[in-house]
Amino acid sequence: MPARTPPPTYPSTSAVMKANPAANTRPERRVRHLLREANFPGYRLHWKKAPGRPDIAYPSRRIAIFVHGCYWHRCPRCYTSLPKSHVEFWSRKFNENQERDRRNTAALFDLGWKVFVVWECELRDTPATALRPILECLAEAG
User: Fold this and answer.
1) Domain that holds residue 89
2) pTM, whole model, 2 decimals?
3) Neighbouring residues of 131: CB distance < 8 A, sequence distance ≥ 6
4) 125 found inside a domain
5) S-S: 65 plus which of 56, 100, 128, 138, CB 3.0-4.6 Å?
6) Looking at residue 37, which CATH number applies to its domain?
């Protein structure tokens, strides 16, 4: 468990950080809209019975979808920079986020789930490409 968040260097930083929602983010809402548009409603949001509480889950089909923000989950394509202050704290925090993501994915795989990760940048740049494997899997699952 990381130590408490260090005090922000600037007061505006605190306001920005508090404004970041943990659930129902704009990218999550976009994915849900696209799933409904493709005639795949019936998902569960942040389903507690699945490891990691996937952002979107189809429990009967054992399909989990995580919608990752590039900054918090450290997108391998975006190479987002680290904050300039409290670098040690934030490095540890981001590493723990990534490790938690790996554990959750592994736990779901072990239970026979198919796991998909949609990155914020993919959704912004090429939403059809980002969702194609998910839609194909949902279509195959019936």
Assistant:
1) 22-141
2) 0.85
3) 31, 34, 35, 38, 118
4) yes
5) 56
6) 3.40.960.10
